[in-house]
Every structure is written in structure tokens, then in C-alpha cells.
Amino acid sequence: GEKVEQHESTLSVREGDSAVINCTYTDTASSYFPWYKQEAGKSLHFVIDIRSNVDRKQSQRLTVLLDKKAKRFSLHITATQPEDSAIYFCAASTGGNNKLTFGQGTVLSVIP
Amino acid sequence: DPKIIQKPKYLVAVTGSEKILICEQYLGHNAMYWYRQSAKKPLEFMFSYSYQKLMDNQTASSRFQPQSSKKNHLDLQITALKPDDSATYFCASSHRLGGYEQYFGPGTRLTVL
């Protein structure tokens, strides 16, 4: 089955800098790649997604890049703020039954 | 107002007992899911339902039984509880199956003693 690997388990950046979180997946049939944010003790909050028919998607300070050949996708956060500090999860789905396979999570710390 | 309600928020059970986790969504979605998050494993898909029909079951054990009495309800019955079942169980929903954004509920944190 699908495996999603999240490369950075922790990431610390200074406020105002950019942060990049990288994920790889194994199933070439995966076509939907969402990202979720989880703050301490809370649920998952959707932040952005990308589908396989595009290779880039931007929403305000967030950009997702998808490289289907390398089976890799990444989340770029610009002008980071302390409130961006959280655990970020990448996920992949083939779309059929909408089953999301998650990466292990990246703890992002934005230092003021 | 919360759009996905999970009850209870916290649950403590003894080994061998049975519990039901409740999930209701008020987003008008047609697909619902259960996921599990434990200290030992990443977020793990358990079930997907579409229009109250089971579409996918990725749990290895029949001790986990989803129940959908209404279109916007998807409860999770867990029998013969084991300490390894301790986890936070998240209910999620989406407009329908097929690559749509999933919204997650607040979770039920289950501890099995």
C-alpha cells in the first residue's frame, strides 16, 4: 500500500524566515495531496492541498509543489509567524475511496 | 458552532470492555471516516463510508465496528478493548469520496487500562 514519508521530524526557523517541509510517496496512482496543521492538543486543520493535474498551488503565504516524477511534494511557508508553530502532516490519496495516508508529521517551531 | 461533534472528548475504559465513540457532522457531507492517532503510529486510516455504506476497512480486527444510523452519523464501536487501543480517534467527513478535502472532528481520546 501507499507509504508517505515526511523528511523533517522537526524544523526550527526564525520569525519572518521561510520554512519548507518535504514529503515523498510511493504509489504512482496517488493524485490528491493535502496538508494539515495540528496545534498541541487539538484536531487537524486543513491548510492547503494539491491535485496531480497541477505542479504548484499557492494560497497566501503557503505554496505546495508537486513533482510527480520524483513522487515528492513540499509545503513552503513564507514570512513565518509564531502562530505557524504546530505539527504539519502531509498526506496522499489515490482519490478513489478518499483514504488519506499520512506522513509522520513535522514539528515546526517559529522562534520570535 | 462546531460542525463535527465527537463524544465523549475523553474516555477511560478497562481492558476487555466495550465502548462506543460518537460522531455527528453538520456539514451536509456524504462521506465520513474514522482515523486513529497514537504515540506509536502516525495518523492511521480506519474506515470510510459513503452514503451510509462502508467503502473501505483498513482495520485488521473485527473488534472495530463502525455504525451509521443516519446519514450524518458514524459511530465507532470497539469491543474487547486492549491497552494498545489507547489512542485519539478522529472522525472526519468530506463532500463525497474521491479526492475531496476532509474536515476533522475534535477527537475522542481513549485510554484503556
What is the gist of this entry?
The complex is a heterodimer of chains A (112) and B (113). Chain A has 112 residues and is mainly β.
Main traits of this protein?
heterodimer; A: 112 residues; mainly beta; six-stranded mixed β-sheet; five-stranded antiparallel β-sheet; 11 strands; B: 113 residues; seven-stranded mixed β-sheet; four-stranded antiparallel β-sheet; globular
Topology of helices and strands:
The complex is a heterodimer of chains A (112) and B (113).
Chain A: E1 4-6, E2 10-14, E3 19-25, E4 32-38, E5 44-51, E6 56-59, E7 62-67, E8 72-77, E9 86-92, E10 101-102, E11 106-111
Parallel strand pairs in A: 2-11
Antiparallel strand pairs in A: 1-3, 3-8, 4-5, 4-9, 6-7, 7-8, 9-10, 9-11
Chain B: E1 4-7, E2 10-13, E3 19-25, E4 31-37, E5 44-50, E6 53-57, E7 64-67, E8 75-78, E9 87-94, E10 103-104, E11 108-112
Question: Could you tell me the strand content of chain A as a percent range?
Answer: over 45%
| Biggest interface, residues from each chain | A-B, 25 and 24 residues
Structural class of chain A: mainly beta
Task: Please report the number of helical segments of chain B.
Answer: 0
> Quick one: how many beta strands of chain A?
11
> What oligomeric assembly is this protein in?
heterodimer
Task: Give the count of helical stretches of chain A.
Answer: 0
By secondary-structure content and strand pairing, the structural class of chain B works out as mainly beta
Shape of chain A: globular
Mean pLDDT of chain A: 95
Instruction: Extract low-pLDDT stretches of chain B.
Output: none
Largest sheet of chain B: 7 strands, mixed
